[in-house]
Design a protein that fits this description.
CATH superfamily of the largest domain: TonB-dependent receptor, beta-barrel domain
Shape: globular
CATH architecture of the largest domain: Beta Barrel
Number of domains: 2
Number of helices: 6
Largest sheet: 27 strands, antiparallel
CATH topology of the largest domain: Maltoporin, Chain A
Structural class: mainly beta
Radius of gyration: 29 Å
Length: 780
Amino acid sequence: MRILLLFLCLSQNTFGQVSGKLITAAGQPIPFANVLLLKDSTIVKATLTDENGLYHMDGITPGKYNLRFSSIGYQILNSPLFELGDSGVYTLQEDPKLLGEIVVKAEKPLFQQQPDGMIVNVENSILTKGSSALAVLERSPGVVIDAHNYNISLNGKSGVMVMLNGKLMRMSAEQVLTLLNSMSADNIEKIELLTTPPAKYDAEGNAGMINIVIKKNKQAGTNGSLSLSAGYGKGEKGSGSINIARNTGKIDLYGAYSFTHDRSYSGFAGQGVQNTPATGALMVFDFLNLGKYVSNNHNATIGIDATLNPRITIGGSINYSNTHNDSEIANLGYYTFESDSLLQMNADIKGVDRWRNLTTSAYIKGKQFNVDIDYLNYNNYNPTNVLSMFFDKKGNNTGAVFPNHHKGTANTSIQVGVIKLDYVKQLSSAVKLETGVKAAYTGSTSVSRIESLEDSEWVSNASNDIKMTETIGALYTSINVKGLSIGARYEYSHTHMNNDIDRKLGKLFPNISYSKKPNEKSELQLSYTKRISRPSYNDLASYISYNDPFSVFAGNPLLQPTITNNLKLGYNYRTYSFSVLLSTDDNPIVQSQLAKGPDKNVSYIIPMNVSWQRNLTFQSSLPFKINDWWDMTYSLEGGWRQFKIDYTPQPVEKTYFSYSLNFSESFKLPKKFFLELSGWYSSAGYYGTIKTDSRGVMNAGIKKGNFQLAVSDILRTSHFDTYYGHLTQEVYSGKNHVRVNPESSFFPIIKLTYSRTIGGVGKVRQKREGAKDERERIRN
């Protein structure tokens, strides 16, 4: 340790640094400009300015230097001689000879493979406008959304953590899906699928992380954008959004508002057999569910970024979201018993699901350190009312066999506080140190109750008052040396829930990655990560909620966290990418599994731990440019999955092959029309004991000027089938088949969107992705 401290001291005493900022005559930052450090007309070092026009060079011996700046569309500038340190702010003047001839345009492929995962650039897709964030996420490679069982999987694995602008959404899977479904996708820039995140990210998420990145206006002056959308499937849909920004270079103000309305229809049908829990007699059932839903969402954001000097920027933002969902569900069930008796159930369920979310963020960004502070507040109110009637096979009312009227209430409040400090130091021209600490506190209160009307009085069947607190502290560090990154993250968590659960867990999560470019056209990548997935507070809670007369939903306080090891090898050639990922999971968590519980009269639907899981996954991203008017991109993911289950009456091991395909075809048509076809297909697979059939969707969109017309699920193939009892014997010998029918399986969803920019048009801070290789050749 003393040697390391001595080395750091000597490094700082021996070498100096140069930093500053490059701006336009209007005060706007100039991103990705060339910066040369010269001594006696000899180039000593070279770098590029970042997106904020800032530059920084370390490891420089004392002396007198001058700088040379150049950027497309501007005159070259040479600075006077100066000593090492803060070189100040420099201004480039526009070159009138070049300004009218050069267009700097961002050209990003749909899929970009990175050492830690894949980036999906969705902002230019015709199909993004007017969609929800959940719909856009579902089109991403390797992502499978099971809204019926509230599960998100990535590359065949559940346990995915979702982030919004790099900040974890610390909610249950059901709450995350509800929020994403109500969020407009108009302002999404890209989606990052991080299968092997570096040490600076949370270790949470055994399948990896999905980061949804929102666009930020970078144009000079006052400007913005407007988008309006109208559509229809089985019900009307509409959305609108407006974004305004005032960018002066030193103080940037921005604000956004969006509204979405969606009237939708969906349902599912199930058939199966099982032994009746109470009597053991065989029961055959048919079940039909048809739901009507109306969702209205308001979302507003305001924020500020202020550049105090070339080295320090501060800022903050406030986001508020309000979602109101109404539902009317009709259930029809037939239960036939061995005694030739029949029980028919007709049930009408009306519910309201209200969400109010507030997120506040503040940051300080320096050349070597960053400080982020976040506070998140989620509130959910979810009352339901169930009116049901029960009849025998002759159509007679069965009377008091089961109560006819139920009502339920659920109130959930979640508060999350996070503080994070990151430090980056360029120890030499080839060695960079990154380290940081993070602390997160989550407090949650959930009160729920189910009551039945019996003899004109409301009788409580089940009630829960769950209070949970969780504290997580983390410390990470990594050293980067010429493509090799060696890091580790230590996390300590303390989870306390009522008097039932008090868990303390400390784990070290190593992270190693290496990348090498054999030549200018190819790159090799190798990485290893260790990760964890902790059970959500919903999964651990000892609650019970009504499903039907013979089954209930419940939590599982015995759930254990999942520990995952990932080894990934990747190869990029030009714009093509290939990778293979080997992962092992101990105690992976799966939802909606059948089990016995304390009440022997019903079966329990609960989350469970699978013993282990092994995955070998191959991935490839293949963009093709057929000609000037036709581009296509294909992403293929597939491999072998193996797992063991021991919580069923008959333990089982299963090995199978599964794969998924995503594609996008873009066409430039005559008269400035643009056509886009995209789709995805996912093969059959398993989720715990649940078998899932293959499914796929094809979408189409056409654009002309400011108008875009999109059609989702044009072949009406979005329905999916699940099976219980086909892999091994379930509790009570249950065996069933359920088909889930989303709205688009009844009728394709058609949306027309109008979008345009508003206000003055300033110089856009964009970069040409084609220059990426050249930029990477410049080293500090």
